[in-house]
Design brief:
single chain; 121 residues; mainly beta; seven-stranded mixed sheet; elongated
Length: 121
Amino acid sequence: QVQLVESGGGLVQTGGSLRLSCAASGSIVSINAMGWYRQAPGKQRELVATISRGGSTNYADSVKGRFTISRDNGKNTVYLQMNNLKPEDTAVYYCNAHGVRTASGYGLDYWGKGTLVTVSS
C-alpha cells in the first residue's frame, strides 16, 4: 500500500518562509506527477503546485513567484518551498501522488493526511 507523509508545517509570521516535505513509501516503481493542494477553513481544496516526473511545474496564480515545488525521484519525495507567506496562505496542505506504479499494480491518486500551515498577520 502506498503512503504519503507530509512534514514541515507550522506557525510563521507574514513574510516568513516554510519548507514542506512529502515522502511516499510502499513498493513504488514510479510516480507520474506529484503535487501540493491546500484547503482553508470553509473553502474547497485547491491546487497549489504540481510537478511531473520530468520536472515540469504548474502553479496556482496566487503562489507564483513565492512558492517553488521540487522533487527527488530517487527518494519519491516532493518539496514545497514557501516564501513571503501571507495570512491567506493559511490552510491544511495535502500532498498528492498521481499515477503510481507499484510492484503489484497501478494506482491513480494517493493523498497524505495533511500538514497545517498558519500565517499570522
